[in-house]
Amino acid sequence: MKWIDMHCDTLSEIIKIKEKDKSTEESLYKNHLCVDAERLRQTESAVQFFACYVNAAEYGDTDTRMTQQKKYPVRREDSGRWDAAYEAVLKMINEAHGEAGQTLFFPKTERTAGILTVEEGGVLNGRLSRLDELYEKGVRLVTLTWNYENCIGYPNSRDRNIMKKGLTDFGIQTVEKMNELGMIVDVSHLSDGGFWDCIRYSRYPVAASHSNARSLCRHPRNLSDEMLRALGESGGVAGLNFYSAFLRERRGQTDGSRASVDDITNHALWMIKKAGEDAVALGTDFDGFDPASLPDGIQGVQDIEKVWDAMRKKGITPRQLDKIAYGNVLRLIHEAGYKK
User: Fold this and answer.
1) How far apart are CA 71 and CA 3, in angstroms?
2) Three-state DSSP class for residue 120
3) What b/e sequence results for 161-181 when a residue is b if at least 16 CB atoms lie within 10 Å of its CB, and e otherwise?
4) In this predicted structure, which of 95-99, 138-142, 158-162, 283-287 has the lowest mean pLDDT?
């Protein structure tokens, strides 16, 4: 069956591999990671969102890196670091277009489409003009924050004071500009306060591209029932994340708590209950964490059928399954003003 995945970090991982080994044959077309074009086509993938992910702490001069604070090593004022991270994003985009070209990012009806995204809105560094440049280069979704405070807002956190903080003035302007361009506003990784500001200020539905239900797994990266309800009422979509730490809580020091495919289904059922069947999708986060943290039996896109089977067995109807796999994201793309 056709399916769409709203988030993977494969592109960023391929770049890292190539930087270490110039002679590698690893590519977006074929690799040993969780996602490649060859397997996507074999599994009837319709669209794969590829994140240009950057960790701003990895950029900047060595002295700055050595003195960075342990918990929040990057601040919005670290201009040089954010600019360097932006250049890294541009490099990823160019690599994607140069490598995949006509085979992926300019899809035809018989091919899998690849949509570029940016995971870390801090790379804008206070410049709305960068959104125009990213848009012209094919970026159609921006995850507003990663794990650091940036010019847009604040990250999810176990610190309640940080979680209460909302978007900055520039963050509100960013949401409005993305609406104008037809870019999807992504609230995954954002503080709760920032989430509510996006619901308030966005004229179009927003995405939580790779976030699960907080009631089933109490991690701040997941969405509360109130957030799920608001997302559903506003036409937004949440993508089921396959990271075990976001699917199942650890039960003990020796329990690695590797999730199962049933855990994915349980989150889907809960999210349908709280947000509605039009608000649930996939956001696997493939290649965004250690493969050992994938649900048991899932090694990559080649195993996606196991997810559909588990959902069928748990009573998810064919109509709901079609929406989760494909329909809800397709609707979101159109409603967000997306343009090719």
Assistant:
1) 37
2) coil
3) ebbebbbbebbbbbbebbbeb
4) 95-99
Place of tokens 């560094």: 125
Does residue 292 contact residue 245 with C-beta atoms inside 8 Å? no
Tokens read off for 86 = 């932006």
Cα–Cα dist 111/98, whole Å: 18
Q: What mean pLDDT is predicted for residues 334-340?
A: 76
Contacts of 337 (CB under 8 A, 6+ apart): 179, 181, 182, 204
> Would you say residue 107 has pLDDT above 60?
no
Q: Can you say how many angstroms the Cα of residue 94 is from the centroid of all Cα atoms in its chain?
A: 20
Is pLDDT of 102 > 60?
no
- Which DSSP helix (H) or strand (E) runs through 237? strand 237-240
Cβ-in-10-Å burial (0-12, 13-18, 19+) of 217 comes to buried
Provide the phi-psi class of 60: left if phi over 0, else alpha when psi is between -120 and 50, else beta.
left
What is the average pLDDT score of the chain?
A: 91
Amino acid in the structure at residue 325: A
- Looking only at the bridges linking them, the beta strands covering 45-53 and 113-119 are parallel
Phi, psi of 4 (to 5 degrees): -130, 135
SS3 170: helix
DSSP symbols for 276-290: -TTSEEE---BTSS-
Q: Which two tokens stand for residue 50?
A: 């590829």
What does 50-85 look like in DSSP terms, one character per residue?
Answer: EEEE--GGGSS-HHHHHT--SS----TT-HHHHHHH
Residue 207 phi/psi, 5° resolution?
A: -115, 145
Q: Report the pLDDT averaged over residues 29-48.
A: 94
Query: What is d(CA 287, CA 297) in angstroms, rounded to the nearest whole number?
Result: 15
> What mean pLDDT do residues 296-322 have?
98
Domains of the chain are 3-335 (3.20.20.140)
CA distances from 286 to 13, 218, 293 (A): 10, 21, 10
DSSP 9: -
Rg (Cα) of the chain, in Å, rounded?
19
